[in-house]
Design a protein that fits this description.
Blueprint lengths: L1 H42 L6 E3 L2 E2 L14 E5 L24 H16 L5 E8 L10 H8 L4 E13 L8 E11 L7 E3 L11
Helix pairs in contact: 2-3
Length: 203
């Protein structure tokens, strides 16, 4: 009888230890999550309503009245998505699928397809300047050199010290933005922050 009692006490101690361990793990996880959320809030990219941007490779070409113009806009997905991959939110994309050369090669292939149409203006989304997902390659500098006949400007759009998604292969550090390329002279360029809260928009 006493042996059963002692065995029961040991079992209760083991269960109690397991419960305490689980509780400590949950508390630590919550604490880490709170610290992470706090860092994200503090470091969240908050652009000014209007920010002056630097124009590179500026050209002397000027627009003429009644001139027909062509524009191509594209989301190039930082060169990370090709025929063999898909975006991770669809359950397919991994952040480490391609190596550095493949990212730049994909970007270059995209540019070649765009240049086949000889556009006057090129608007590009998701250009990384310092991101783990694209091996921290400055893609804007690469495109600026590749499209040297175009005046160009870059506007940051998304910056994060760490993106935990997808959980199996986090995107990590992320600095990305939009680039504009023009065959014509850019006298100035600005990034304008639009209202994000739709309830504040009055038509």
């Amino acid at each position: 009888m006493q042996a059963h009692f002692l065995g029961g006490k040991k079992l209760i101690k083991k269960i109690s230890l397991i419960i305490k361990t689980i509780c400590i793990f949950i508390l630590i996880s919550c604490f880490v999550a709170l610290i992470y959320m706090f860092i994200l809030i503090v470091t969240d990219y908050k652009p000014k309503s209007v920010e002056k941007l630097e124009v590179s490779n500026n050209t002397l070409n000027s627009l003429k009245a009644n001139e027909e113009l062509s524009i191509i806009t594209a989301d190039v997905s930082y060169g990370g998505i090709d025929q063999s991959t898909a975006f991770f939110e669809n359950g397919h994309r991994k952040s480490d699928v391609l190596n550095e050369n493949q990212f730049l090669n994909t970007l270059t292939d995209n540019m070649d397809s765009i240049l086949d149409h000889n556009p006057d203006f090129i608007f590009l989304q998701e250009i990384d300047t310092l991101a783990s997902r694209s091996n921290e390659e400055n893609q804007y500098e690469h495109l600026k050199n590749y499209l040297s006949d175009y005046a160009c400007v870059y506007a940051p759009n998304y910056q994060a010290i760490w993106v935990p998604m997808p959980f199996a292969s986090p995107l990590g550090k992320l600095n990305s933005g939009q680039a504009t390329f023009s065959k014509y002279n850019m006298s100035s360029a600005s990034r304008i922050a639009l209202v994000q809260d739709l309830s504040l928009i009055h038509i």
